[in-house]
């Protein structure tokens, strides 16, 4: 596992390629939450999500030979864009496997960033097979969007920046899907927090992380019928041990609570956030009695949303 010194060096190394995102507050939202809430705006990050951090971190860890052969991943969303832009910034070929059902706007973004797209059938088996074929043909290194230690460390730099600016935070909340952001956040809180706790949040309709912590082993979802499309994936063997060891709890929220929180963030912070991004604030409103009196930090994970198809 990474040391605090190595974590700080990693953050310094990727800082050239990422934005140091702002932190916002709202008196009205503080009033609704009945406590102080600070929002770390990763929706303002390059490519519109925190995933630029992990993608850059993973690529900087490659050897010169690995960089020459490139990287490959499969993604229909934020990680596809992050890998494409990070690779372009570092002069590395990027092969992106995307399901044919992925929105055209996301495919266009990947192409703009220089990613070489291979389309496949819209299922995980087809995605994995296509990525494996590219690996064999090109020698490219596979990057997992959440279950890769260098990706996890990169994602954790958002919380590191957060605590550097607001060291008095008592709790940092982050959404959990694949687990990369939550595991990285927990590591950063462990290194740089002063009596600070990490809490994960996910929908009831995709609550594998909640059940995994309860059972002590990685659980899966039979259905993922949630509006928080970025949280439909499950934990991996690299991030689950960190989450199990360093995350205090995982809170679950309902679909209507996610939509309400998202709407409030749009209206009161005047920013674009996607449903997955609103999940932690939904938990704060749901559990306000338990959070009262604490200074809360929320990582707003991303803002890539179809503005023609909003849930409110």
TrEMBL record:
It comes from the Bacteria. Residues 14-302 form the Tryptophan synthase beta chain-like PALP domain. It holds the Pfam family PALP. InterPro entries: TrpB-like_PALP, TrpB-like_PALP_sf. One of its GO terms (biological process) is D-serine biosynthetic process. Signal peptide: none annotated. One of its GO terms (molecular function) is L-serine ammonia-lyase activity. Its cofactor is pyridoxal 5'-phosphate. The keyword Transmembrane helix does not apply. Keywords: Lyase, Pyridoxal phosphate. PANTHER family: SERINE / THREONINE RACEMASE FAMILY MEMBER, SERINE RACEMASE. Belongs to the serine/threonine dehydratase family. This is Threonine dehydratase. It comes from Salegentibacter echinorum.
């Amino acid at each position: 596992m990474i040391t605090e010194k190595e974590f700080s060096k990693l953050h310094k190394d990727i800082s050239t390629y990422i934005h140091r995102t702002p932190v916002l507050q709202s008196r009205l939202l503080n009033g609704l939450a009945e406590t102080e809430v600070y929002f770390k705006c990763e929706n303002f990050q390059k490519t519109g999500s925190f995933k630029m951090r992990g993608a850059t971190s993973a690529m900087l860890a490659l050897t010169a030979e690995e960089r020459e052969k490139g990287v490959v991943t499969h993604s229909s969303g934020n990680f596809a864009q992050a890998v494409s832009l990070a690779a372009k910034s570092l002069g590395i070929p990027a092969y992106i496997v995307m399901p044919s059902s992925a929105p055209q706007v996301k495919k266009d973004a990947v192409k703009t960033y220089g990613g070489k797209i291979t389309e496949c059938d819209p299922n995980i088996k087809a995605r994995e097979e296509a990525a494996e074929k590219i690996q064999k043909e090109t020698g490219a290194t596979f990057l997992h969007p959440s279950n890769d230690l260098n990706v996890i460390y990169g994602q954790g730099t958002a919380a590191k920046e957060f605590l550097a600016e607001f060291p008095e935070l008592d709790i940092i909340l982050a959404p959990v899907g694949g687990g990369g952001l939550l595991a990285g956040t927990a590591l950063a809180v462990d290194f740089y927090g002063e009596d600070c706790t990490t809490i994960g949040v996910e929908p009831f309709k995709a609550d594998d992380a909640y059940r995994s912590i309860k059972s002590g082993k990685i659980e899966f979802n039979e259905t993922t019928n949630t509006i928080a499309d970025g949280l439909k994936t499950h934990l991996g063997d690299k991030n689950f041990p960190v989450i199990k060891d360093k995350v205090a709890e995982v809170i679950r929220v309902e679909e209507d609570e996610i939509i309400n929180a998202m709407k409030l963030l749009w209206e009161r912070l005047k920013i674009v956030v996607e449903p997955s991004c609103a999940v932690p604030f939904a938990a704060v409103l749901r559990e306000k009695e338990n959070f009262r009196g604490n200074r809360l930090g929320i990582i707003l994970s991303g803002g890539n949303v179809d503005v023609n198809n909003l849930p409110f």
